[in-house]
Amino acid sequence: MNIISLFRRRQPARRVAPPANAPMVRQPQQPGQQAPQQARQQPQQQQPQQPQQQAQRSGARQAARHYLAAHSVEKSFGSRMVVKGVTLYVRRGEAVGLLGPNGAGKTTVFYMITGLIKADRGRIELDGYDVTPLPMYQRARLGVGYLPQEASIFRGLNVEENIRAVLEVVEPDRRRRDADLKALLEEFNITRLRKTPTIALSGGERRRVEIARALATRPSYMLLDEPFAGIDPIAVGDIQQLVRHLTNRGIGVLITDHNVRETLGLTDRTYIIYSGEVLMEGRPEDIVNNPDVRRLYLGEEFRM
């Protein structure tokens, strides 16, 4: 999908507020944790809080809302139910994998989170707001970046023009656009390529430009669809470094890919989808050592 199509109308420079019809919802229960209690204060039963305590509690509540989640989502195509109540979440600053065999439903789950496919049941939450009814371009305005598997750069433009095309949509101030462009070129080490036609870039260079351009929209989360597809072995490490760079920036990253070893090598947690359900969620080492995952998906001979 063309990234410019995510922004149908010219937007102000900074993040827009969630729409009025996106109600706050309770944080989805995370594996092994109890759902947080509602933040209702009863001053008559509590001692007055010091300003520092109030700030700490307020900060904790805000931090708890910083997630992108799918909660009990379902999807059917005709009479076939392909996603059966999947729940997952991505926190800011972590990389999460979404893996599974062909036909398991992982791509459908991924597309429901991006907004490319509408869920039949369940909800999608963004930083505590229900964004289930919002189309993809509105989710993008609220901070959900998406990098498709197919090359998404404008082949008729050079590197600088690709990034500037997005900045002109999201940043009305020319001086800020120039500063943001310079910062992104330097951040991804592509300043030397700024006048290079994108058709002449290598696979790794192209991915750098695509991610830099996606960051021009100032996302809080980045959804990467098959980031290792079509990448030569030398560029695999480059892509892994880019993902780590995103998480170091505080951006939550959700990755779906068929390259299991490469994905597990860079994610903090991973969900295994099997037959439309979550077979397991956990750290890469736990995933690899789980007997059911090895029997149904990885194979007994799999090694990291």
Concise overview:
With 304 residues, the chain is an alpha/beta fold. The chain has helices at residues 51-64, 106-114, 136-141, 159-170, 174-187, 203-215, 233-248, 260-264, 284-289, 291-298; strands spanning 67-77, 80-91, 95-99, 121-126, 129-130, 144-147, 221-225, 252-256, 269-274, 277-282.
Key structural traits:
single chain; 304 residues; alpha/beta; Rossmann fold; 6-stranded mixed β-sheet; 4-stranded antiparallel β-sheet; 20% strand; P-loop_NTPase; Lipopolysaccharide export system ATP-binding protein LptB; ATP-binding; ATP binding; cell membrane
Describe this protein's structure.
Component of the lipopolysaccharide transport and assembly complex. The LptBFG transporter is composed of two ATP-binding proteins (LptB) and two transmembrane proteins (LptF and LptG). With 304 residues, this protein is of the alpha/beta class. The protein has helices spanning 51-64, 106-114, 136-141, 159-170, 174-187, 203-215, 233-248, 260-264, 284-289, 291-298; strands at 67-77, 80-91, 95-99, 121-126, 129-130, 144-147, 221-225, 252-256, 269-274, 277-282. A hairpin with a 2-residue loop joins strand 1 and strand 2 (80-91). It has a domain at 63-149 and 219-298: 3-Layer(aba) Sandwich (Rossmann fold). Helix 4 packs across helix 5, helix 4 (159-170) packs parallel to helix 6 and helix 6 (203-215) runs parallel beside helix 7. 34% of the residues lie in helices and 20% in strands. Residues 1-17, 26-48 and 51-63 have low confidence and may be disordered.
